[in-house]
Amino acid sequence: MKNKKYLYTTGQFAKLNGVNKRTLHYYDEIGLFSPEFKGENGYRYYTCFQTVQLELILILRKIGLSIEEIIRYQQRPSGASFAELIEERKALIDKSIRELLNTKAFLEQKSKKLSLSLTAREGEIKTVTLPEQRILLSAPITGSYDDDDFAVAGDFSLRLKSLFGLYDNFGSRISVEKILAGNYADYDCFFAYGREDTEIYDTVRPAGTYLRVFCVGGWNKLETVYHNILIFADKNQIELVGYSYEEGLNEMSLQSRDDYITMITVGIKTANNSR
């Protein structure tokens, strides 16, 4: 048969395009996509030029078009209507990509926090060097966690949902001035980490050196932790500056509130880190 190497049986064409033979038989039966060439032996063959047509059909199916919609377009082909269809589906794909990226970022953050929780040693105070971090802030809170603070938390949660497409946990921020004054529960606001792929953020946690300590158990233990931080800073002649950031690490894997791990990160002043 002339040009036989450019012709494919159903099985060969299915393998070439990564589809099932039954799919090609079905498409042929309903008139969606059929073999183009009939050989001298009476068999029908697909040609190499049909791969693009099948690819388009498969892509249209992937982006949500029904077989009936594709057949209707084939029966009344129009460049304008097809362009409109493509733009509509591109918008849906872009939306899906954003949602997947948001989900990926969400899971990556959870993974990092979980890794930190697995290596956390209660009460150990150490210095860490951190890169600049974009921060999102809520409206001011009192730290009493009354109805007003819960209302702020609700609004902040909705803001994060509108920005990132997902609800997520967030932490609390308190100024060093309040810690030095012994007002360990007088929080300024809630905070969440901004994303590198967006310019939407409220402030920046500067790059530099920080004290980090983990508290295991209920929030009532935080006062003792801050007291120990002040003792550590005084003993080592370290000046605390800026803010302390508190965030839970293991909300997704708690068996008891006594297992709750809070990570506390407090700014300190160094030669290269004056804040």
UniProtKB/TrEMBL annotation:
Annotated PROSITE patterns: HTH_MERR_2
Record domain HTH merR-type: where: 7-76
InterPro entries found in the cross-reference section: DNA-bd_dom_put_sf, MerR-type_HTH_dom, MerR_fam, Reg_factor_effector_dom_sf
GO molecular function: DNA binding; DNA-binding transcription factor activity
SUPFAM superfamilies listed in its UniProt record: Probable bacterial effector-binding domain, Putative DNA-binding domain
Keywords, alphabetical: DNA-binding, Repressor, Transcription, Transcription regulation
Signal sequence, start to end: none
Annotated Gene3D superfamilies: 1.10.1660.10, Regulatory factor, effector binding domain
PANTHER family linked: MERR-FAMILY TRANSCRIPTIONAL REGULATOR (PTHR30204:SF69), REDOX-CYCLING DRUG-SENSING TRANSCRIPTIONAL ACTIVATOR SOXR (PTHR30204)
Name of protein: MerR family transcriptional regulator
Organism: Pusillibacter faecalis
